[in-house]
Model the fold of this input.
Amino acid sequence: MTELLTAAQMRAIETAAIESGEVTGLELMERAGAGVVEAIFEEWPELAGADAAGGEGGIARPAEKGGVALHPALPDSPQDICEQKKFRAVVLCGPGNNGGDGFVVARLLRQRGWEVEVFLYGDAVKMPPDAKANYERWLENAGVHRWDDNFIEDTLDECDHDLVVDAVFGTGLTRLMPDDTERTWHGFVPRVFSWHQKDRPKYVAVDIPSGICSDSGRNLEGAFPTDLTVSFHRAKIGHYLLAKGPPDGGTLWCGKVVVKDIGLKDACIADAVRLFDPTISTLTKFSDTHKYSHGHALILAGGPGRTGAARMAARGALRVGAGLVTLAVPPAAQKEVAAQVTAIMLRQVGDATALAKVLEDARFNAIGLGPALGLDEDAAALVATALEAGRATVLDADALTLLAKDAALFAKLHDKCVLTPHAGEFKRLFPDIAAKLEAVPTKGPAYSKVDATREAAKRAGCLVLFKGPDTVIAAPDGRCSINSAQYERAAPWLATAGSGDVLTGFIAGLLARGIAPQQAAETAAWLHVECALDFGPGLIAEDLPEQLPNVLRRLLSRP
Ligand SMILES: NC(=O)C1=CN([C@@H]2O[C@H](COP(=O)(O)OP(=O)(O)OC[C@H]3O[C@@H](n4cnc5c(N)ncnc54)[C@H](OP(=O)(O)O)[C@@H]3O)[C@@H](O)[C@H]2O)[C@@H](O)CC1
Ligand SMILES: Nc1ncnc2c1ncn2[C@@H]1O[C@H](COP(=O)(O)OP(=O)(O)O)[C@@H](O)[C@H]1O
Ligand SMILES: [K+]
Done:
């Protein structure tokens, strides 16, 4: 599993490496800049075509150290900049070490013969030492434009650039994007999202798009969207939490995330958030004795006309490997369900008393309930009885709404429970936490979906799986992972009616197999996305369980 870091964790790793003497900050910055250039050429090999003919010093410019004034030898109109055609880049540098990385990128591109224009936001005199060293090194052979929103906007509009590098702010973004970057942002958004515009420049973010908070993924107003984001050592949490999309759609701000090794060692970070990837051992844990050793899941169905959700959950539980699955069905819906299922068993459960009777059989070791269960008192009594049984239990949909309405019911949650809210259900269950998440952020690090899910899990005393393309799974003790359906795992067609019901079944099935709640929820969520990717667009919820054998076969044949 890959660790995702916060800015503070990344800074601590960097500081420890520098203090131990194994590397200097300047070396790390050089590797970071080189990593960005390498990633650019890997992503767009056609840009690597330039030879090093220009070389450093290829364009003679008087040196001017220490100042931020517009360099006297630089052209002062976009037309002048555009005069000559070779590979062209604009590098936007900020006042911190992110800007320092930008100066390295600018120098390395220039060494390859590129024409590079650099704009600096902020005061060079106040730059941190490594960034300043690279700024000064750049000034030895070239110049820097002082930040001017209008000039940048016009330059980008009028010139035939191949590349724009955003090195304005990285992990050090602490407050809203400044007003004087606004026009540049207005220029970025339509250009980056006009995907069909031929020959538009490639947009690359150093570490994270400026304006996106690296701990929360939230947009501190005016984020610069990009095609490619190049981060260092480990991806940051913010790369995987979905910021609200730009005005014209929900495309991700980061474009694609590439992580470059800069020679830092792994550190043991106790509370790191992880990007989930399953271990095969979880799924191969088939016993060779009998079906009961693979557990028996009980899925509660709703009344007549509302049994489809539970049937899909039951099918999911069976496909994921529960030894047996029984649907607990109200008498009035018995015929409807019997006509539709074969491998799944049925039990009549008319009320909470009947459920308690069924659960006297200790072989029912996992329960799934909520999808289309109903919201009346009888349904609430079923939830109470299920919780009192103390089994591994996944609660979804109506069960979550019932929990939100009744504090006494909520208090019955225990450490073998898994709650699977989508954003609306999360808000019903944890309105105060959701309000913090919905509040417009004004500073970094901003409150994140990870923070919210951890807080919810602690309050509920059980595992919480907060759904979405960036599903966050947190345990009460703070252990936390993200199951991403973004970037190369994007599967927006998974957002289809009933797909959450199947997820409930996957979790219940894995719980029945004796897998602990956190591992069961993480594995189920991962398999769920994998099934959607395997099937592709056109998917409906019923397809998900049927896709599982293919996914499992592929997983089990992994080297
Ligand atoms: N850590 C590592 O291992 C490595 C890190 N590396 C690189 O360093 C980057 C982190 O550098 P960083 O810490 O200097 O922060 P950075 O993002 O440049 O910004 C800080 C500056 O911005 C300013 N500022 C902030 N918000 C603002 C706003 N809204 N509006 C205006 N100003 C604002 C802030 O001002 P202040 O808050 O101090 O007043 C300060 O001047 C990281 O992303 C990576 O690229 C690599 O070299 C490899 C190794
Ligand atoms: N854009 C998306 N990309 C991938 N998966 C998504 C996306 N939006 C939602 N999902 C997933 O789809 C499922 C929807 O579940 P839910 O909202 O409970 O729907 P339903 O109640 O119809 O079953 C969840 O597993 C959620 O994580
Ligand atoms: K950046």
